[in-house]
Write the structure tokens for this entry.
Amino acid sequence: MSLLVAPHAMTSSRGLVANHLRAGLSTGALADLREDWAALVEAARDFSGAAVELAALSGHELPGLAAFLDEDPWLPFRFVSVHAPTKHVETGDRALARTLAELPPVVDAIVLHPDTLREPEAFRALGRRAVIENMDARKEAGTTVAELEALFELLPEAGFCLDVAHVWSLDPSMALGHELLDAFRLRLTHVHVSSLTPACEHVPLLGQHEALFAEVLERCVDVPWILEAA
């Protein structure tokens, strides 16, 4: 098992993220434990009991996660999100939506990537648990207010997950982050926090990025912040 860095040690330059009482970890940051859901939950719990995101990022991971949750495991978190698959999904959107809709009520939010949705209306089955995430500079959909507004028209009950690193990849001034919050703040369920490499890969939050993200994050203090790199 990887040795995790405690939240209070992760950001020394400003401490904004370290001091957020609702910070939690994405299990996608724990690649060496992938698909061992009991171990992933234990590691995430050791990091923080405030929140967790159970990341089934590949289609083949979702059945195992669903089976694990069906066993009614002890999940000592105040907020539980599931990140839906974004790659290697062999079923269509309607079948995927049915599987996600059957996840037990302990799951508060189910994160969807706009660029992967071929039939967005299929995910109405998720109701308020459907959560749309803004995309990074590599993606051709879901990066702007207008693109996301069109998706929310199809999924009127859906929430919004703000990824601050994705914003930065498109607009290092972070003005886009304020635009997204101005438009969708009332839908906000949680925030993804990390830094990005030039290839848009998530890495631990850098001090200079925490400073850049600060004004946007300060508008989100009432929702969980999920760290996508440990």
Remarks:
- The domain at 14-227 is CATH 3.20.20.150 (TIM Barrel).
- The mean pLDDT is 92.
